[in-house]
Amino acid sequence: MSDASQPDAPVTPELRYELSDGVARLTIDRPARRNALSWTVLTEMRARLAEIRGDPDARVVVITGAGDKAFCAGADLTGMADGAGHLALHDSRGELAGLFDDLWDLGKPTIARVRGYALAGGMGLALACDLVVAADDAVFGTPEIDVGLWPFMITVPLVRSMPPKKALELMMTGRRVDAAEADRIGFVTRVVAPDELDAAVDELAATLASKPPATLRLGRQAFYEVWDRSADEALPLLHALLTVTTGTEDATEGIAAFVEKRPPEWTGR
Asked: Of 41, 90, 180, 221, which is most buried with the most CB atoms under 10 A?
């Protein structure tokens, strides 16, 4: 793993990127709009994730929002509508679904660092990450119903992150959930005080970055591939992936390091 650190350089004025010690950080930088997902943010985040996927120095991804008021207050897709037409706007909305797929197919662990509001598409973005670390002032919710809409695009991240009937209740009522309730429901990994948030995220990211990349990639792949499958369908896939994993350089190195009582040196192969 590279120890080189790259300066915090903007991809666009609305999205910042930093790579240091194996951890890639993407920050939505629109605090005046509560870090809403603009067309620019969506397309640039997808482009950056594509780069991260092929970068061996990026082992973990952290997604967050600038400031202390909001992680992301939802989608701000009005810019797509200007002169685009109804069908073009329909296609543009598919970018959010594409972003979720990018996260699930990334092959690397993802962490949502949540401070303040995570609403609508912002809640979907947080829950599309593998793990969610939230400050105790975080607020989650799907308020679309109150303006005559429905959170169609985030249904999959929601039902993958909590009991389906609980997700339905939140979508039907539009009520907001504080961090303590989110923890009880189970869609938040850890809740900490705001002044402990960065340290908690850094600790978790460093832990994941220290693990064998090849095994993490195959393990995540297995997790998502068998999610909705029956046992009869899942077990043959898991059996095959176990055989693939045992043949990787990381597995060979891990076993050798254990026997020789030394720290392993992962190659990601």
From this structure: 41
Nearest C-alpha neighbor of 129 from the set 151, 161, 97: 161
Phi-psi category of residue 84: left, alpha or beta, with phi > 0 → left and psi -120 to 50 → alpha: alpha
Going by the DSSP 8-state scheme, the letter that residue 176 receives in this structure is E
CA distance linking residue 85 with residue 87, whole number of Å: 6
- The pLDDT-based confidence of 3 (bands split at 50, 70, 90) is very low
**What tens digit of pLDDT does each residue of 123-134 get?**
999 999 999 999
- What's the gap between Cα 72 and its chain centre? 13
- pLDDT of residue 157 exceeding 80, the answer is yes
Query: Any idea which fold 9-209 has?
Result: 2-enoyl-CoA Hydratase; Chain A, domain 1 (3.90.226)
Average pLDDT, the chain: 91
Alpha helices in 133-178 (DSSP H): 155-159, 164-173
In 3D, which of 24, 53, 49, 52 has the Cα closest to residue 113? 24
Nearest to 190 by CA among 111, 250, 269, 103: 111
Q: Domain 213-260 - what CATH class?
A: mainly alpha
DSSP 8-state assignment for residue 194? G
pLDDT tens across 188-199, in order?
Answer: 999 999 999 999
